[in-house]
Write the structure tokens for this entry.
Amino acid sequence: MLNIEATPGKLRITLDVVLRERHPMFTSPVAAEQYCYQKGSLTFEGVSEIHWSGQESMVAARDNIDGQLDFGGLDDFVISGESSSLTGNFGFITVISRFPILEMEARP
């Protein structure tokens, strides 16, 4: 997780996504990395509720291999109707919204 930004009606999470071999954007991992990472954003629009607990146990941000701040991994992501739940080093987030959209950034 690189950033979590909440504004009225919207939640946007910027993250490094692990791509598997069958994904069209997959490339061999760069030196010193185990996986192929691609920066992307997970956006929830039409947000009516956000609950974020466990922030007090949030791992302090650290610089990742690219020199960006990193708040740790997304361990669990469950969608049930309009409710989405995310769990990781950042705590536990529940969002009531339209279906989330994952967008990948274009490679340079």
